[in-house]
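pasting for the record
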Amino acid sequence: MLNKDQTNTLISIIDKLEDSPLKDEFLSQLNHLIIKSEEVREQIEPISMKDIYKRFKVPNQNNYKRLTRRNKKSQARNTNIKRK
């Protein structure tokens, strides 16, 4: 996909060429790239923040509580091991 600066640069370079079949071919290819870029831009649909948040799973509270208890037990074991 070309941005405007790239497109303008290519046009200025092609414009410096003498009129020939090669220049016509370059212009034709550039035109094809521009049309292709516009088609890609049209296909991109805007996405809302709500849609982005929906894609992420909400953490299960039971899992959170279970992991918190397991973490506390592990910390207590580590503390007991250090004391010995």
